[in-house]
Amino acid sequence: MTDITRDVVIVGAGVSGLTAANELVKAGKTVAVLEARDRVGGRLWTREIDGAMLEIGGQWVSPDQDALIGTLEDLGLETYSRYREGDSVYIDADGALTTFTGEIFPVSAETQREMERLIGVLDELVAEIGIAAPWDHPRAKELDTITWKAWLEAQTEDQEARDNIGLFIAEAMLTKPSHAISALQAIQMAASAGSFTHLVDSDFILDKRVVGGLQSVPIALAEKLGGDVFLNQPVRRIEHDDDSVTVVADGMTVSAKRVIVAVPPNLYSRIDFQPALPRRQHQMHQHLSLGLVIKVHAVYDRPFWREAGLSGTAFSPYETVHEAYDNTNHGDSKGTLVGFVSDETADGLFELSEEERKHRILTSLSHYYGEQALTPEVYYESDWGTEEWTRGAYAASFDLGGLSRYGADLRTPVGVIHWSCSDLAAEGFQHVDGAIRVGRETAAVIADELNA
């Protein structure tokens, strides 16, 4: 067992923890980053599968993500635009396919008016409630004790409008059924992106990718820390008092003045805190959970859909794959599609054999792109629900009533213990941008405390 001493020990080598570590080093503090996995990056992971480079986890950069964009510039990492030339595809409840351009799906004039009206209502609520402290709004408890599904039902009788608007929050972002999240949680999700309008604009929310993959960010951040990043070191116990902390991992013990727990909240219970965390933290953490999504990668000899004038962008709340995009890598002659299957639909697929699941997913892609989609050269399913040190995707959200009840305490330190991850972010919630923001803010708080 190796024993070392640092000013601050960070649990988790994802972007948030690595950002905090680098900021603390800039402030003249010594750090140690302990990571349970054999790699850095957390929910960012670029892998080569059967000769194809695939981004297993997060991958996109939006134009409002200033913290991420600034970090990419600082690290000298290049970006490229997602392919979006041509028509998008929409499939309705009857299975009819329609091509379209723009953000609004090709629905009837009446349904389009309802969708636009609902987007306007949600944009007004986002502007009114804001992102900094949605739990402080006078309507917070009201909106947090009605499901996203029930809220939409109260707004309109148009089923297709409800299905499509609901898609952008439930299946696409929080990856939970619409009856399992609150209206306030949905509004917070939209507010973290600036507006609901941004969420429905795939050209905005999924704007660019990083050459070589987004995992290049944590890899570069870890390289700056040199030998202060320790892999294969799952943290088992955190012993703490008023002035110091001892963090015990499988192969080492770190003594420090502060600790940053930079992992998703659903993993906090994997750590034995001595003394135990306060009652409120115990309760709050039990009301946070990650969603479930299968990220599907299908690689073909060429991006054949472009030959048909399609951008690769496809949506349908009625399909197994509810959304899909052209995910062809920078400078690659092969064509890659990425699609998503979430929450209860994913549950059903995981009850099938691997081959039957693949068949169902590729059949769904063929509904968008034609029979050529049935025969990819490379096929892979990212299933973060099986990852021991993640256990879901994309981020943790509260159950009904949890945000208004506990939201104000999400980042409250417990003595020398601080918390940092994208799941706790305001702007950039559940994105790398949010992870960077929280990492910087947490590091600044600790540096001030240690300098006092």
TrEMBL record:
It comes from the Bacteria. Residues 15-446 form the Amine oxidase domain. One of its GO terms (molecular function) is oxidoreductase activity. InterPro entries: Amino_oxidase, FAD/NAD-bd_sf, Flavin_MAO. Belongs to the flavin monoamine oxidase family. This is Putrescine oxidase.
